[in-house]
């Protein structure tokens, strides 16, 4: 039987379900949190299949409802609607109002929006993201509607012809320049990522992009794990589910009526 939701204790016991691309920032913030935080990482490549990621997260949420936690934290954004439709059972879910992990790296929706408006065709680089490459693409594009297609073409060329030939074909076709204008490296200040910055600079030069080095901001991750949940976070109470809003709020709660496999 599911335990009845109770008001959290002063020191909470929290479980954080997270994408592994946030590993270092999460473990750092968990170590300093005033609460007891257990971090559970999910493989980076799962975001390529949102329904599968959603099902995996929901399965863990259902199990953890009986494990004595005060809340289940989701270190995700909408991530291709992978989190839309997730239902809280027994304990609340808490998730940042974010479109994807770039918002978490940058520290706010406002900064995310500024970057999108100034240069939508951006290829983003980050230490944990790059280290956990599984062949699904070395970096992530923010705001380019064609990004998924162009990345898929590149990966297909790599598999068929090898990386050097794939780079050559993309350059000859002008594919990179058509969809991207900038390489942006985000330094979260956790770990030595100089080699990732060097890689980003080299690819920017090779592909004719502008290169920017940006300081990351741990504020959203820290506040998620510290229990500092204001309007930047969605708190989903038991019996509610996450719904995408298509506006600045990013997501909202609604009464759970359907399974989490098919978001509205």
Instruction: Indicate the structural class.
Output: alpha/beta
Widest sheet: strand ordering: 2-1-3-4-9
Rg, rounded, reads: 19 Å
Shape, principal axes of CA atoms: globular
CATH domain topology of the largest domain: Rossmann fold
Helicity range of the residues? 25-40%
Provide the CATH architecture of the largest domain: 3-Layer(aba) Sandwich
Number of strands: 11
Q: Unreliable runs, pLDDT <50, ≥5 residues? A: 141-146
Domains, number = 2
Order of helices and strands: EHEHEEHHEHEHHHEHEHEEE
Assign the CATH class of the largest domain.
Alpha Beta
Note the topology.
Blueprint: E1 13-19, H1 23-32, E2 36-42, H2 50-64, E3 71-75, E4 93-96, H3 101-106, H4 109-118, E5 122-125, H5 127-131, E6 140-142, H6 147-161, H7 163-173, H8 175-179, E7 182-187, H9 194-207, E8 210-215, H10 219-226, E9 233-236, E10 240-244, E11 251-255
Parallel strand pairs: 1-2, 1-3, 3-4, 5-7, 7-8
Antiparallel strand pairs: 4-9, 5-6, 10-11
Helix pairs in contact: 1-10, 6-7
Task: Give a verbal description of the structure.
It is built from 10 helices and 11 strands. With 264 residues, the chain is α/β, with parallel strands linked by helices. The protein folds into 2 domains: 127 residues, Rossmann fold, CATH 3.40.50; 99 residues, no CATH class. β1, α1 and β2 form a beta-alpha-beta unit. About 2% of the residues have low confidence.
Gist?
The protein is α/β, with parallel strands linked by helices and 264 residues long. It contains ten helices and eleven strands.
């Amino acid at each position: 039987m599911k335990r009845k939701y109770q008001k959290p204790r002063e020191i909470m016991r929290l479980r954080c379900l997270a994408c592994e691309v946030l590993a270092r920032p999460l473990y750092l913030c968990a170590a300093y949190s005033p609460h007891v935080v257990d971090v559970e990482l999910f493989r980076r490549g799962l975001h390529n299949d949102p329904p599968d990621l959603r099902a995996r997260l929901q399965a863990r949420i259902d199990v953890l409802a009986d494990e004595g936690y005060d809340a289940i934290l989701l270190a995700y954004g909408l991530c291709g609607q992978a989190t839309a439709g997730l239902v809280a059972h027994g304990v609340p879910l808490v998730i940042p109002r974010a479109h994807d992990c770039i918002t978490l790296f940058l520290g706010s929706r406002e900064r995310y929006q500024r970057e999108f408006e100034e240069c939508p065709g951006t290829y983003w680089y980050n230490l944990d993201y790059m280290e956990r490459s599984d062949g699904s693409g070395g970096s992530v594009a923010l705001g380019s509607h064609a990004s998924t297609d162009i990345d898929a073409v590149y990966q297909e060329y790599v598999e068929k012809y090898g990386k050097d030939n794939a780079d050559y074909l993309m350059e000859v076709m002008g594919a990179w320049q058509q969809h991207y204008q900038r390489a942006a490296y985000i330094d979260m200040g956790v770990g030595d990522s100089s080699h990732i910055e060097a890689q980003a600079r080299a690819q920017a030069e090779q592909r004719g992009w502008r290169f920017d080095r940006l300081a990351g901001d741990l504020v959203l991750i820290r506040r998620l794990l510290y229990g500092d949940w204001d309007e930047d976070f969605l708190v989903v109470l038991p019996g509610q589910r996450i719904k995408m809003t298509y506006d600045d709020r990013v997501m909202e709660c609604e009464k759970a009526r359907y399974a989490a496999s098919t978001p509205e």
